[in-house]
Structures are given as C-alpha cells and as structure tokens.
C-alpha cells in the first residue's frame, strides 16, 4: 500500500476518534489534520505547473486553520475559551475565504469567464432559502437569543461561499475525478459541521460544538489534504462525466424547492400569526434570483446549441453543416479538404487531450493562412476544409497545355508481387521500374508536384502544407506534421464535398503530404475499387485465393533456407486487389488465410529440410488485439514450429505503435522471428534497429541499382546489421554477378529471380527434394 493511502487511513482513524476527545483534544486533532493538509498543498503547489497559486492559497488556508485550532486548544486547556466573535474567529473567517478563493482559482481558465456561475448561483440561492427558514428565521423570532451568537452565525454564511466555489469548479470541469470528489466531501463536511455548531450554540449547549461538528471539521481538513495529495496530473480529462440527465434533474428539483418552501413557510407564519414583511420579501427575492439565473441558463443553452449547430466546439471554427450551406450558395472558387497524416498515432501515444491541443494549434495556423483567401471549417476529427475564394481558382480551369499532369504511384512500388502488406516486389529488372506499375491514382493530378504551380489554389495548398510542417510542441513533445489535401474546383455540379474527399483519398494513397486535384476518373476508380472489394469478399469464401512461394537462399552455399509466401488471385494481379483489401479491412481475413496456408505448406518442408517460411503482415493486421493469438493458432493447427515462421513487416509499422511492439515481443518469446522489409526506403531509424523486436533485415532492391555508391551502401548496411546481431537478406537479385558481389560484401541471404520466381507449393516441394537449387518458373509471371 502506498504512503498516501496509509496517511489517508491514519487520518480517517483520527476523524473517528476526534468526537470522543475533550474539547482541547478535539482542537489538537484539528490542528494535526490541518497541518498535514497544509504540507500536502504546498508540495502540490511546487509540482503543479498549471495552477500552483491555488494550491499555495489552500496551503495558507489550512495553515491558518492549524494555528487557530492550536489557539483554541490552549484556550480550552486553560479553561478560558473566548466569548463572542473573537480574534480566532476572525482568523477562521480568513481561512474560509482562502479556501473558497483557491477553489475558484482551480476553475480559472477552464472555460468562459462566467462558466458555471449560473449552476453555482442556483444551488447557493436554494441553500440560502433553506438556511433562512431552518436556521436564521427561528433565531430572529426567538427572543433574547440573537445576542452573543455572531460567531456561530457567520460560519454557515461562509459555507455558502465554499458551496458556490466547489459547485462552479465541478460545473466548469464537467467531470467528477477523485480530486473533485474529495473537494466536494470537504465542503459538505464543513457545512454539516457548521450548521450543527450553529444549532448547538443556539440551544445553549456550549461553544466547542457537538460530536458531529468535531467529525465534520476533522473530515474537512482530511479531504483537503487528500485532494491536494491525489497523484492525478491536471487537465487529463479523466473521470466520470457528469450526466446531463442528472444536471436536468437537479434543476427541476431546485425549481420546485424554492416556491414550495416559500409557500409552506408563509402558511406557517400566517397560522402562527408571526407574519413579518421580511418573511415574504427575502424568500421572494431569492426565488426571483433563482428564476433569473435559470432564464440565463436557458438562454445560454440555446445560444450554445445554436453555435454547436454551425460551429465546432473545440476549435470554434464553422462545422460541416455551415460548410454545406456555403457550398449550396457557391458557384465558383475551389474546395480544399485537408486531413492530418497519421494523426491517430498522436491520440494513441499521447492521449486525446494532447490530440485536442494539437487540433487547436492546427486550427490557429490554418486561420492565419486562409485569412483573406476564403473560409475555413472543421469537418470533424482531424479533417478541415477551406472554401477558397474565386480569385484562388486555378488559372484557366485546368493544367497547362505544355505541362502535362504529373502522376504518382499509389503505394510506391505497389503490391504487384503479392505481398499481403502491399510491399514491393523484390523482383524485376534491376535499375528498371517495378513490374506491374502503371499510372497510379488513375487520373489524380498531383497539384503539389508540378503542372499547376502557377495556380493560386495550388499556392494556397502549398502555404497550408508549409504552415503545418512547422514543429508543434504538445504535452512536452515536439511533433512534426504533414497534411494531405483534396482539391475540387467548384462549378454548378453537385457533390463537391464528396469529390474533394475522393481527391483527398488519392492524395493519401499517393504517399500523403501532397495535394491532389479531383478529376472524373477518380470516381470511376473508386467504383472499380468497391467492385473489387465485393469480388474479393466472395473469393475469400472459395478456393480462388492461392499462395505461391519464392526461395530465399544462403548466398555462400545456394541452399534454400526459407521461402516467402506471396498471395495470388486468378481474377486480378496483386497490385489491383491488395490495396483494396487494405483499405476495406479485408486484409485481416486475407492475411490470416495466407498465414494458415503458408504454415500448412511449410510444415513438411521444415520437417524434411529445415526450411522456414516468411509471411508478410500488414499494419492493419498488427492493430488487431488478437493478432498474436491468431498466429499461435495457425502454428498449432499446422504443426509448424514457431522457430520456422518469420513475420515480415515494413519499417513504418514499428514507429509509434505500442500494440504492434507488444504483439511482436510476445511472438518472439515463442520463437517466431521478425524481418523488416524494404530497409532503406522508409524511416530507416537506427533507434528502432537497436530497440525494437527485429531478427532479419531485408535490404531493398534499390540498393542494387548500378552506381558508385551502391556497394559501399550495401556494405554499410550489412556491417550495421551484423553489429546488431541481425541477419541480412538482399532483395531483387537478378544475376549471378549481383549474387557474387553480395557474397563479397558479406550479405547472408538473397532473394530474386536469379534464384527463382514465385511458384505453387508443389514446385517448391520438388525443388527442395532435388536439392539442386534449380530456378523455378512462375507460370503467371510475365
């Protein structure tokens, strides 16, 4: 048990004992608890950079309470407690004021200046009305008891201040964290104690107060100490949200209580013939104030709902509804839809509070860029939109005749070789383009890459991208952002927002951090992609999906050490259906199907020849919470040892994903190995090579392209990998000369057409049985 919990238990024990002690002993207990609260609050002030002043004030308040209680203890011990409103009472008043001010400061900066005032005002007014009829009105009408009760009368009034401050704090925060519960309990305990003390003095039972007062005052200091010592960082957003139904029920109750209590008291006064003008004036005034506050609250709610209807609450920007209203009236100009690249990683790693802070910063930068050029809106999540003025429309409405549109591949060298994760082939002519590549984006024009450099809307997109590339400091971290942009030139046709979304999708598919201008072919591509997804969904339930295998050999001996599993579908080449599977989420069942087929095929190969199998895993698969279980089940069902399975991932998968790292660490403990594909084309961070769960480094085929730096670069990567205890595999080996160079450079293994093309399992079995290392022919390969 932590020290804080032991301290809380000890304090609760003292709270239980305090009512049993004599008056002097009670005051000593109060002093001890108040001193502990003061020390805890001062410690919190020193480590809380957000609101240290509030905790300093709370420390000063509880220190004042400790001094006052010590003075009362001495007075009771000497048998000479001060009568009436003494200097000690004046100091106690200061303590209450300091505590209330500290609570108000804890709510400062959490919303509009008057946020929570209505809620707190309604509660306090109701409390005033109840206090008047239950406490002060009987006292006024009781002859001879007013004199000498000034001290006892002040404390319930001060409690109203504390109630106002703590209710406002909870209303502003909108959540009940443990810290706020402690503060609510503190105010409730001292209120009960003071009311009990008032009643005791009114009845002539003595100045030290009844047992319930002793318990309440003790608990007050203990709860303040617990709130100050609770180890939750400020503004984390954690805690139970105060339900709107509960708030509504509270308002209804308060609305009913005020007139009901007023009417009952009025009737009682009439029946007892003790009617006085103040008996009507005061309750009617309080009820009127409550009514005005509720009207203000209703008006504020209506204004807020109106703002929310057209405004985004987080950033204050117009929302999607407002944007659609603008688009309905717009006939010229351009629409830009923006989406932050990989924003999900920020929420996953730093939390939604940091993500919200980042979005507010992004909104501020976009305001500065868009000012004078159009209108800015937030569509939701990390997506924004700019309705650019007609002056920012691309000149001529299209690309320059002498400068054709620049096209980019959707996913770099796409998945034409059938790797489930959409990675490069590792095969094809060295120095040439990857087999199966074509114009990617199918008509998407890269506005940021050329061909439209003179267009104002492209300049606006470039300014947006440049502004967001500036580092952002959030939650103690420096973040570097990029943004993808879809552009739709406005005309009289409907569906501009949907078309801009298609262009945004093309920008994401083309590698992110760019702008793409919508063309009609994008819609056709999207429809074709949807059709592919539906066909693939059916194919997964049949035998249409097959797996071929490509040898990976030990370079010095030519022995087939492993084979890589590559997916095939008779209907379409891999570069056509794998991206569709990734986008739709079908990559998860497809990947599991390939994994199971590969494990079944490799089980006899490993038993007879010691051959391992490499299976590509997509980032989407690794985000599944049961991925490790899926792999274990496939190994168990096939009888393949875990040591014979290699999971192949890309570099980007390892960056910023705790779940991925956990999956891979768990499987590596079983014996499964992890290979990083296409090293040198992605993040290429030395830190992840050192710290993350990797066994094999696959060097990208681009390193084999002719050039003076090729061999030194390969040697550097091989030496680095070996120094870290990693095995190296070079992809794209096409000739015996390349294989010989790799042997001289110290590379361990090679993969490529020189050793064999992807082939069905039966041909791999024949190859392994002959042991000759003969080249395999992929009958489907061009």
From TrEMBL:
The keyword Transmembrane is assigned to this record: yes
Superkingdom of the source species: Bacteria
Keywords: Membrane, Signal, Transmembrane, Transmembrane helix
Segments passing through the bilayer: 55-78, 90-108, 114-136, 157-174, 180-199, 248-268, 280-298
Domain (GGDEF) ranges: 331-520
One Pfam assignment: GGDEF
Domain named EAL: residues: 529-772
Compositionally biased tracts (Gly residues): 419-441
Leader sequence segment: 1-23
Protein name: Signal transduction protein with EAL and GGDEF domain
């Amino acid at each position: 048990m932590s020290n804080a919990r032991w301290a809380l238990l000890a304090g609760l024990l003292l709270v239980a004992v305090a009512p049993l002690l004599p008056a002097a002993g009670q005051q000593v207990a109060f002093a001890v608890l108040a001193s502990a609260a003061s020390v805890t609050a001062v410690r919190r002030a020193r480590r809380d950079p957000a609101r240290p002043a509030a905790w300093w004030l709370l420390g000063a308040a509880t220190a004042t309470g400790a001094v006052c209680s010590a003075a009362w203890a001495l007075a009771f011990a000497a048998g000479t407690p001060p009568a009436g409103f003494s200097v000690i009472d004046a100091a106690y008043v200061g303590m209450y004021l300091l505590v209330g001010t500290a609570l108000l400061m804890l709510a400062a900066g959490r919303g509009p200046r008057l946020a929570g005032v209505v809620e707190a005002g309604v509660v306090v007014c109701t409390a005033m009305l109840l206090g008047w009829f239950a406490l002060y009105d009987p006292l006024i009408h009781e002859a001879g008891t007013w004199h000498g009760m000034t001290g006892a009368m002040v404390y319930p009034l001060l409690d109203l201040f504390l109630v106002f401050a703590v209710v406002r704090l909870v209303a502003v925060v909108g959540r009940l964290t443990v810290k706020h519960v402690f503060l609510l309990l503190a105010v409730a305990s001292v209120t009960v104690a003071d009311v009990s003390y008032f009643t005791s003095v009114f009845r002539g039972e003595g100045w030290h107060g009844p047992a319930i007062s002793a318990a309440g005052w003790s608990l007050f200091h203990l709860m303040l100490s617990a709130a100050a010592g609770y180890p939750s960082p400020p503004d984390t957003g954690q805690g139970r949200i105060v339900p709107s139904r509960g708030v509504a029920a509270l308002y209804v109750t308060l609305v009913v209580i005020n007139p009901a209590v007023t009417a009952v008291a009025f009737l009682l006064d009439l029946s007892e013939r003790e009617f006085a003008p103040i008996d009507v004036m005061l309750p009617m005034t309080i009820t009127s104030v409550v009514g005005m506050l509720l009207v203000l609250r209703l008006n504020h709610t209506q204004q807020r709902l109106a703002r929310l209807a057209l405004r985004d609450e987080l950033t204050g920007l117009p929302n999607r509804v407002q944007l659609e209203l603008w688009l309905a009236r717009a006939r010229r100009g351009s629409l830009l839809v923006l989406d932050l690249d990989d924003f999900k990683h920020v929420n996953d790693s730093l939390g939604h509070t940091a993500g919200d802070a980042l979005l507010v910063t992004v909104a501020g930068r976009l305001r500065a860029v868009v000012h004078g050029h159009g209108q800015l809106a937030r569509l939701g999540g990390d997506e924004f939109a700019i309705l650019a003025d007609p002056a920012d429309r691309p000149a001529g409405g299209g690309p320059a005749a002498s400068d054709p549109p620049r096209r980019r591949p959707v996913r770099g060298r796409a998945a034409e070789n059938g790797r489930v994760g959409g990675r490069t082939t590792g095969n094809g002519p060295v120095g040439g383009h990857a087999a199966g590549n074509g114009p990617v984006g199918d008509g998407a024009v890269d506005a940021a890459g050329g061909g439209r450099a003179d267009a104002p809307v492209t300049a606006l997109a470039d300014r947006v991208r440049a502004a967001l590339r500036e580092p952002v400091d959030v939650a103690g971290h420096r973040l570097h952002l990029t943004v993808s942009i879809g552009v739709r030139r406005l005309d009289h046709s409907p569906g501009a927002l949907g078309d801009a979304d298609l262009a945004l999708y093309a920008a994401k598919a083309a590698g992110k951090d760019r702008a793409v201008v919508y063309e009609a072919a994008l819609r056709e591509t999207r429809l074709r992609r949807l059709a592919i997804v539906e066909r693939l969904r059916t194919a997964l339930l049949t035998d249409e999906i097959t797996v071929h295998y490509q040898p990976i050999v030990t370079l010095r001996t030519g022995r087939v050490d492993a084979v890589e599993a590559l997916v095939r579908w008779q209907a379409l080449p891999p570069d056509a259906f794998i991206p569709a599977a990734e986008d739709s989420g079908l990559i998860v069942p497809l990947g599991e199907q390939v994994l199971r087929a590969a494990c079944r095929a490799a089980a006899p190969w490993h038993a007879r020849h010691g051959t391992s199998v490499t299976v590509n895993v997509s980032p989407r698969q690794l985000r599944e919470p049961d991925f490790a279980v899926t792999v274990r089940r496939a190994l168990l069902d096939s009888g393949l040892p875990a040591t014979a399975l290699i999971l192949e991932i890309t570099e980007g998968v390892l960056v910023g994903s705790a779940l991925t790292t956990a999956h891979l660490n768990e499987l590596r403990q079983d014996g499964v190995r992890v290979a990083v594909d296409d090293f040198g084309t992605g993040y290429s961070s030395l830190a992840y090579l050192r710290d993350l769960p990797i066994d094999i480094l696959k060097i990208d085929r681009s390193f084999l392209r002719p050039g003076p730096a090729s061999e030194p670069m390969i040697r550097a990567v091989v030496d680095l990998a070996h120094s870290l205890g990693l095995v190296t595999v070079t992809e794209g080996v096409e000739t015996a000369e390349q294989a010989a160079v790799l042997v001289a450079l110290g590379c361990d293994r090679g993969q490529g057409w020189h050793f064999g093309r992807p082939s069905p399992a039966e041909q791999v079995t024949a190859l392994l049985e002959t042991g000759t290392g003969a080249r395999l022919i992929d009958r489907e390969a061009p």
